[in-house]
Design a protein that fits this description.
BirA Bifunctional Protein, domain 2; about 450 residues; 2 domains; homodimer
Chain lengths: ~450, ~450
């Protein structure tokens, strides 16, 4: 049984003379996650992911794996975190990305990059086995790993940190048309993944920037703390990141300049890279006639820790965290009666019954936590549960102690609805909330 | 359906003038893993973990999670990979560990360590919330993450790499007796975990070395390429790492010097650290009377990638990889008839039936791969399956094409046994092999 009293969740109340200064807390999600014991700051832009949040991270990883493997048919691997600086020199990015690259030099004097992204690394892998038969393509390889960026000013907690968890997918095709098809497939999977997360998002055309290539789209959660300015053309309906407009301020599609604007938090990014890396590093294929050609690439990122933090930023109030159902550390929290209360003896036995039956519902076998801090009143624990934001909270209180007609208070925190339901109805309601959308 | 033709598995045949030189290949497991497309070398001591091996890594992680969470009652979290060099200075290890530490300096001039281990980091976390009520203990926190070590001479592939995946558990107790109890609990879980892996191992008392503390044990797989000399006292039966004997050559238990010796590959290590880190960094608790005290610590490592490589080193022949059943990328491989063969039409339909029914067996729902390279003969594919070492290989061949009495060739590669079985018996045999030990 997952018991709340056994979970390491050191909450942070920031006193006036604290080592974490108020000015270090630059977003609502960062403050809520600190206050609720989900993260602790380690250094400037580095964080401890504490056990409750670790559960959310692992759920997010599982969700990303699902969409990458089933929808994109991508294969998972692990690239080394250290990439030879020499490869970055060959791609031409060692100087252009200089400021944000973290480097380390080994005892033999070789400089390595702590990868912020891995185009060079994966292309070198393909180059080492080149030329590869056309039959092997499309090739879609991804990893989920820690990335590093030497931010000038880390901020917003997990949303702009020096270390962050990212899913990076690299694709290889034998021609531009095939690469375009792959691009559509991955963007389609991103749409489905973000729909499953359920936080409102917008897709905009974007600048290719340091990555290079020709085509790029970003996915944003609209939010006041977003660092990107999104432009929605009122004439043609197209959306883009303001960066795309560069100097001109007209819509690239229809040449009008009638935009609605909003700021967004970038959670995913897609690029058609063409042959920028494959040409520089020599990643080739052999066509049906045995003629060699340069591979066409794409790359596709999702910020895993950023996706979680941005979701919390968008969904939460100033007081209470709210999670996307799919990413919550536990989807159900049970609150049994206070120790020594008059309902304890009669309502108490329902705890085991509910716990046992809820775990039998689809997908819920390890997703229920019991707030066993029974020296505290139900009211205090319910307030805590609202703050941390478990999507479903069930109170086993006075109404459950009624001998002939036991009832439970069911809080659906996704929709801020309360209901009082019998045993079977409670189970049906949990199943409905958790499984109707999947 | 997992199809072998869709798995990125670039095999390596080392030609005379190859960039990977023969002298770089220093162990059997490294050679086999390179030849079979499980790893590729990226740099000196860094490797790509390719998709088949990635599956084994994720299985190993799941197994370690299971034993940490269910047996040790430990909670999973993530510590930052970068630790402030200042913390290492405070613990006194910045100089003593100097040679093997990888470092990076950020744009603000702050030096950080790419963590080879995280005693400083986790103790700083506890210190930041100190003093912690005695009720919170025992506290057992672990992570599974990439660690870095600037090896003078990386070798043996994944067994001594500059980047490696490690499970590191840190425990906090309110007194030495409680810390000793935790030590027993974790060692007991290690025994059960290694029993589940099934590779023969020995537990020896070990030097505390750079880690400090008072008590330490190592778990080794006996192997010729092992870098540690293990001493088994013929008089009292105790075993230790030769390092423990230091200058004297007598058994520390019985003062005799009658040893049998063997070399071993260290796969796990346990330490009682006492208050070395908690005192230096100020990690404290409050006892029942409100009096503060210094926490007692332990740390416990398992080399995840090393465990896999060492298993392959021990179990494999010079030609053929063998995996522990629990860690194999796929436990079952199905080989259907060759395209255009006379058995294709009659035996072919059994593929879907077998695939479907095997996946219904306990724990096997995503553990079956089909060698769909049907332009190749069954014999060639069977040879490949023997090289890569799937624990169970099922051939759907001429015998399966017999209309009245279909039979399948079942290869149990764990015991190098072959049998010819009917449909139901094949399923029972797979279930017996996979589920009788768990």
């Amino acid at each position: 049984m997952h018991k709340l009293s056994k979970i390491f969740q050191p909450s942070l109340i920031i006193p006036k003379n604290a080592s974490v200064k108020k000015q270090d807390v630059t977003s609502k999600s960062q403050r809520l996650m600190l206050e609720q014991g989900l993260i602790r700051q380690a250094g400037n832009g580095t964080f401890y992911i504490l056990p409750l949040l670790q559960r959310a991270v692992e759920k997010t990883i599982a969700l990303v794996d699902l969409y990458m493997q089933q929808h994109v048919k991508a294969e998972k691997l692990s690239l080394p975190m250290l990439t030879s600086a020499e490869l970055w020199r060959q791609s031409g990015r060692l100087d252009s990305a200089e400021a944000e690259l973290m480097k380390t030099t080994d005892r033999h004097g070789k400089m390595q990059i702590l990868g912020p992204t891995h185009e060079e690394s994966i292309t070198a892998l393909l180059a080492a086995i080149s030329p590869v038969s056309y039959r092997q393509f499309p090739l879609r390889l991804y990893q989920i790993s820690t990335k590093f960026r030497d931010e000038m000013k880390p901020r917003f907690g997990l949303m702009r940190a020096k270390e962050f968890l990212m899913k990076d997918l690299y694709t290889f095709d034998i021609g531009p048309e095939e690469a375009r098809q792959t691009y559509e497939t991955v963007n389609d999977a991103y749409r489905q993944l973000l729909d499953a997360v359920g936080v409102p998002y917008v897709k905009v055309s974007a600048d290719t920037g340091l990555m290079g290539g020709t085509t790029s789209h970003e996915y944003h959660f609209p939010s006041e703390v977003g660092e990107d300015q999104l432009m929605h053309c009122r004439e043609c309906g197209k959306s883009c990141n303001q960066e795309v407009l560069a100097n001109g301020m007209d819509c690239k599609q229809c040449n009008n300049a009638n935009f609605s604007k909003q700021t967004g938090i970038e959670v995913a990014h897609t690029f058609i890279l063409e042959d920028k890396y494959s040409k520089a590093l020599g990643a080739k294929f052999l066509d049906q006639k045995g003629k060699p050609g340069i591979l066409q690439m794409g790359c596709y990122g999702i910020g895993v820790t950023r996706l979680i933090a941005a979701s919390i930023e968008v969904l939460s109030s100033e007081m209470d965290i709210r999670w996307p159902l799919a990413l919550a550390p536990f989807r159900v929290c049970l609150i049994p009666p206070k120790k020594g209360s008059k309902e304890e003896s009669q309502a108490g036995p329902w705890l085991d019954k509910l716990y046992f039956e809820i775990r039998k519902l689809k997908g819920l076998d390890s997703d229920v936590v019991v707030d066993d801090r029974i020296s505290m009143t139900i009211g205090k624990r319910l307030m805590d549960a609202k703050k941390i934001g478990y999507p479903i909270v069930i109170v086993i209180g006075a109404k459950a102690a009624c001998e002939s007609n036991e009832l439970f208070e069911v809080y659906n925190q996704l929709q801020e609805k309360e209901s009082v339901l019998g045993f079977t109805e409670t189970l049906l309601e949990i199943d409905r909330i958790c499984n109707s959308r999947t």
